[in-house]
Structures are given as C-alpha cells and as structure tokens.
Amino acid sequence: MKQFLITAAGVFAGLILFLVGVPIVLISMAMSATAPAPTPTRTVLQLDLRDPLTDQAPHNPLWGIGRNSTSVMSIIETLRRAEKDDKVKGLLVRLPEAGIEPGMADELRLAFNHFRAAGKPIYAHSQSLYPSGMGATTYMLGRASDQFWMQPGASLQVTGVATEDLFFKRFFDKYGVVPQYEQRYEYKNAVNGYLYSDYTPAHKQSTLSWMSSVYASNLAFAAADRKGDPAALRAALEAGPYVAEDAMARKLVDRLGQVREAEDALLDKAGDGAKTLDFDDYADNRAARDAAKPGDAIAVIEAEGPIVTGKDKGSNPFTGGKTIYSDDLADAILRAAKIGSIKAIVLRLNSPGGSDTASEQILDAIRVAKSKGKPVVVSMGTYAASGGYWISSEASAIVAQPTTLTGSIGVFGGKFALGPALAKFGVDVRETAVGGPYAGAFGMGQPFTPAQRAAFAGWMDRIYGNFITRVAAGRNLPEARVREIAKGRVWTGVQAKSLGLVDEIGGFYQAVDKAKQLAKLDGDVQLRRMTPQEGAFEALQNALGVSATSARSLAAAAWVFGDPRAKSIIDGVAEAKLRESGGGMVLAPTPLH
User: Fold this and answer.
1) 287, 315, 342 — which closes off a domain?
2) Range with lowest mean pLDDT among 103-107, 121-125, 555-559
3) Comparing C-alpha atoms, which of 327, 376, 373 is closest to residue 348?
4) Is the pLDDT score of 6 beyond 70?
C-alpha cells in the first residue's frame, strides 16, 4: 500500500507538472517563434549587464528563452549584427555595481570598440562601483564607451583588487578530519585550504602574479581607450574612494546624471523619433539572423563548465547549469570534421578543468579533426585551465584574452578520512573488502596506508606525466621546459603567450580570423554553430520522465481533444516555422550540415 501511494503521488505530481509545465513551455516556444515587432527606424539598444553573466548562451532551450543578454557570446554576436543595421543608432549600457569576470570584460570591451569603430556611439551608466570582486573590469568597460555616466552621489570605489581564501586546517585538526591529497605540484593550490592554515609561498606567489597581471591589464586598457597614461590613472583611482562628483572633477567619469538622462542624451544624438529597444528583443529578432547558406563554413562549437565523462542527460531543463560532457563535445567535433563544407573549427572554451579521461576523449576528437585537414582554433574565455588546457594543448592555435586564466598544468586528487572525527561523536566506521590492498583505499573511515598512499601518488605522477607530454607535443616545447612552467601554476593569457602556451591574444572574432587564415579562406565566411544542444521536446522529456516522442504526442493529443490553449499554441508554432522554412514545415530543430 505504501508503494502504491508513493507511485500514485509520483504520477499525480507528473500529471500536474505536465498540465502546468507543457502550456508554459509551448507558450514560450510560440512566443519565441512568432515574428517580432519590427525594429524602429532609429533605434537605441539598451543592454543591462547587471544580471549574472555566463560566457555562452544556455544550450537548453527551456532555460535560454529570452535570456540572450546574460551570455557574452550572444552579446558580441548581436552587436556585430547591429553594426550593419542602419536602424541601430547607438547602445546604452547599464553597468553592474561589482566587477565582471576579467575574460568576459575583455571580450565585451573588444565588442564595444568594434561597435564604436562602426560609427555607433555607446553611453555607459553606473549607479555605483564597489570594491567587491574585480571592480576594475567594470570600470574598464565604462571607459570603453563614448560617454561614461555616473548617478549623482554614487560611489566610485575602484582602488585595487583583493581576494580572500578560507583555510580549514585548524578546524579539521580540532574535529579529527584528515584531508589526504596529492598535488602536482606546489602551485596546484585548489585544495590548499584543506591542508594548511595560511598561504604557502607558492600559493601566494601565484595568486599575486595573476591578480597583478589582470589589474595591470584592466588599467592599461582603461587608459588606452581614452588616450591616457596608465600610471596616472592608477594613482588617481587608488587615491579613492570617491563620490561621483569628486570622480568627475578628477575626470574619472564623463557625466553625472540619472539613467533616464543618459538615455535621453543618446536618443537626442540618434535623431528625431529615436526609440529605445531592449537588447534581448533585438537579439531575438530572427529576421536579423543570418540563415545557413551553402558553401564553405567554419564550425563554432561552444563548451562551458567543469569537464566530466558521459552525455548530458538533461536532469533539470528549467535550470541553466553548465557542464561539459565529453561524449557530447567529442561527438560535435567529430561531426564537424566529417562535413565537407566545414573547413575549420573554432572551439569556444570556458572551463576551470575537470576529469583527465574526459579531457583526453575531447582532445582525441580534436586530433581526428586535424587529421582530416580541419584546423581547430581554441578561443579561451575567462578560464581554460587544468582540464580546459588539456583539451586545448594540441589545437592548431590557441587564442586567449589578456586576462584569461589558463595553464594550471597539474593534477590533484585525494580524500577526507572522516573516521577519527566521527568516532568523537560515537560513530564508528568499519570496512570489509576483498581483493588487493588498494581495494579500500578510498574508504572514508581511515587514512591511506603507506602502500595505498604510494600507489595513489604513482597514479598522480602518471596523469601529470601524460599532461606534460601532451602540452610538449601540442605546443612544440621541450618536456623539460613544460615541467618548468607547469607545476599547477595559473597564468593569465598575456603571461601564457610569453611562455608559448598561447599563440595569440584576442577574443572570439580574432580566433575566427585565425581559423580563416589556417584554412586559407578569404572574405566573409559563414559561421555554423554546431554546439551540442538539447531540443525543446527532449528537454521536456527529461523534465517529465517521458520520451521526446511521447512529449510530442501528448501535445498533439491536447490539440486533438480540443484544448483551445494548446491548439492555438501549436498552430502558431507551426505557422511560424512554416514561414521561417519558406514553405517547408519544420516542427523540431534539426542539425545544420
């Protein structure tokens, strides 16, 4: 009876989710499929950067609907289209009160400069800049505009960069928790917080190195965009904090005013009858997007998040979590390698690392693509470290932002032995194992035995050696030199280029140019997105626990049984898809070949 009630409750919950979720999903699909309102003849786009940013748009369509401006890639691609649109006369940017991730800020700055070079002004407005995070990155973006506005009485607190780390060793010692980790080597500090009560010399050195590089880069660009002196700008900022009026007196910002005043000023510059348009609404205007065309193309494949083995099962399509699944990414690269019209691949990568075996699977796909004469260029976002660099190591070329955190050629692993801590509270952990002495090595009850620790350390050495070998081969460096600059150390893009770990400094479109050069392509070349993506019905399948075919059938059944909401929605989707396809109905997304 208990099991029956549990099953019945599950069925009921699924039914409610279907009855509520399906209409919401279908309405969202219909809204995204219907023709948008036309862009006004004189348009000022409004871009709000105050929401959290990701490097890439969500691959799940149920999460990504209407969220274009939260993705750096979506922003820069939309700005490229807007440059060529005579109706777009300018851009108003709302700046966040904290810092933007350095690599993201670099990419946006390049896009802003390109937009302005096309003769289209940008006004940026700030309601305050506080020292939390990398405030200098946001300030840099403000300086990359034509006019940097600040709200009267607001704060400008860009006086440097600071970070804090937590160290748990004394806490663990007090309660008997035994952290056991192997690191290769001293700069691989991801688990230092478990092992020490303060920074090790290597940890401190590495952190100061990349922070100083990022800060110097931000200030150099902020000064260069206004033809100023970086040293003078640094001295002025570090003498703060300031209120907006003082900041303007020191020429750290250009204008004071509310956001409505900045908007009115830009509308006046745009001309009579100019109107504002939300950036997302413009980005969703499918008529502005380039349709796939026959001919030579460069495949664009995006990957963001930690690297794991397997496929994306889409456990929760209503969230926007990011993970790189090795099967999915490797398959996308291999598929692009097989298509004759694809002449090169640009892999946009934003990852702090992950599984070595998953990284090796993806790297193998890159090798296959190169063997078929398809250059593979990696465009690094904010991070491409550890496993992210393993993937990149044998690419035809690597393009990184000056502040991209990359390298971290190293490995760590281990466990927490909780038995001594639990024993203090009357909980005893006992183990039973058969087989060799390593069988129970990762049990939580007791620390490694000396033999287990030695075996585990040997395994870490082999993984580290494999990493070194791949980097040496891919970057054409002697292994001894790679071992010297590896040791788990994080480098910024500028530092990595000087070491030979990165080929060029730049953003996504610089990586595209590099791919064109390597593939010997001239002129405008189509970019064909081939990122692994879950279809809307497949996402719904994983939410409801039914097959994608069943999801389609249930939606169709709603039409047959006369549900006016579902009937209207499905008819609208079909009609919109019919218009898009030029008369050939397309009811579900299909890959472009």
Assistant:
1) 287
2) 555-559
3) 376
4) no
Q: Is residue 235 part of a domain?
A: no
Question: Locate tokens 């871009």: which residue?
Answer: 47
Mean of per-residue pLDDT scores for the chain? 85
Tokens 């996504």, located at residue: 508
The domain of 19 spans: 2-33+537-580
Question: Omega before 242 cis (within 30°)?
Answer: no
Rounded distance between C-alpha atoms, residue 269 and residue 420, angstroms = 70
| Same structural domain, 399 and 495 | yes
User: Which of 454-463, 505-514, 520-529, 562-571 bottoms out in mean pLDDT, i.e. has the lowest?
Assistant: 562-571
Judged against a pLDDT cut of 80, whether residue 313 lies above it is answered with no
Is residue 184 very low, low, confident or very high in pLDDT (cuts 50, 70, 90)?
very high
- The CATH number for 245's domain is 3.90.226.10
In whole angstroms, how far apart are CA 386 and each of 273, 345, 563?
A: 52, 22, 52
Asked whether 346 and 379 are in contact (CB, 8 A), the reply is yes
Domain shared by 350 and 478, yes or no: yes
**Residues in contact with 402: Cβ distance below 8 Å, sequence separation at least 6, in sequence order:** 106, 213, 217, 492, 493, 494, 505
Average pLDDT on 416-426 reads 92
In one letter, which amino acid is 376? Answer: V
Shared-domain flag, residues 521 and 377:
yes
Q: Is pLDDT of 518 > 90?
A: yes
What's the farthest any 2 CA atoms get from each other in the chain? 82
Question: How far is Cα 103 from Cα 137, in angstroms, rounded to an integer?
Answer: 9
Residues 554 and 509 in one domain: no
pLDDT of residue 37: 59
Which residue, among 361, 207, 316, 355, has the nearest Cα to 540 in the 3D structure? Answer: 316
**Cis amide linkage into residue 241, ω under 30° from 0:** yes
Res 367: pLDDT: 98
66-84 per-residue burial string, b: 16 or more CB within 10 A, e: under 16:
ebbbbbbbbbbbbbeebbe
**Phi–psi pair at 352, nearest 5 degrees:** -85, -5
Residue 591 domain-assigned (yes or no): no
* Domain identity same for 245 and 334: no
CB hemisphere CA count around 160 (13 angstroms): 8
Q: Which residue has the tokens 């003082």?
A: 246
Same domain, 385 and 499: yes
**Residue 410 contacts residue 486 (beta carbons within 8 Å):** yes
Distance, CA of 540 to CA of 553 (rounded, Å): 12
How many distinct structural domains can be found in the chain? 3
Q: Compute the distance between CA of residue 531 and CA of residue 55 in angstroms, rounded to an integer.
A: 14
Across 99-121, average pLDDT:
97
Strands 242-243 and 307-308: unpaired
Cross-strand pairs, 91: 45, 122
Residue 416 lies in a domain: yes
Higher per-residue confidence, 295 vs 349 = 349
State whether 502 and 575 are in the same domain.
no
Which of 486, 507, 529 is the C-terminal boundary of a domain? 529
Cα(492)–Cα(501) distance, integer angstroms? 10
Q: What are the strands, taking DSSP E only, across 244-339?
A: 255-256, 275-278, 297-304, 307-308, 324-325
